[in-house]
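Usage

Read records sequentially. Each one opens with the input sequence:
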Amino acid sequence: MAFVVSPFRNAYRYLQRQAHESPVLFYSVVLGSIGPVLAFTVPPIRERLGYRHPEPIPTTYPIPKRPRRPVQGYEDEE
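and closes with the structure output:
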């Protein structure tokens, strides 16, 4: 039965040693691996809690419903 647990125990000891000897690299890897997990788990949780997506931002200016007047000259000319 020890042969089943041995790889996990060795991996745990290795990770513990890395966290002690080079904590910046160890915690960078830990935080970097948490990011993709959160990207897949947070949106469904937010939707279950009642979050609604906002309206899309308009990409064009609304054109008025009237005939267009032609431009005559510049505003700064007198």
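Summary fields computed downstream for this record:
- The mean pLDDT is 87.
- The longest helix spans residues 23-48.
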